[in-house]
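Sequence dictates fold. Next comes a concrete instance:
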Amino acid sequence: MLRYAVTDGISPQQRLLERARRWAAEGLDYVQLREQGRNPAEAVGLAKAMLHIFREYGSRTRLLVNARADVAVAAGADGVHLTAHPDELTPAQVRSLFALAGWPRPLLSISCHTLAEVEHACSAAVDLVLFGPVFEKRVRGELVSAGAGLESLRKACTAAASTQVLALGGVTAESAEACLQAGAAGVAGIRLFTEPGA
């Protein structure tokens, strides 16, 4: 089962680096640096520090930067996470930026919420599709978003064909197995990998 942690965007840097050490020790497959509130210099510094930790541990963990291809290139990250939003960089544009900088072909993940988005992403040859939200999301007891459900996840996995799909949104340790049975290659999330005792 592939495991893909996403940073929460609010934790102090020291807490994030502590998590990076734990994730490296646990052999997580991917970490997405999702820190939109940080300025580019801070984000690059944080990405470099996390990459150093992953290498120090001899970890297989790969670092992807959310939306900021410039930060990913400057830090030497493994790739970029995109959304299906039409105003964002395309996978081809991100690959061109990495090639111009002399970096290897980047890993690309993308968030998708519909089958049409999954099909479009796969036609662009992304490496990973994060499909969700699979389960409903609540914050302090309040419903934030309804889940698409396991059947929608199953259809997304079928539509993705050979592209790996990770279940995102409300996934717990208990529900991860159901996601795998629906065809997902793994699970992604914030709280899933930061709680408890994060």
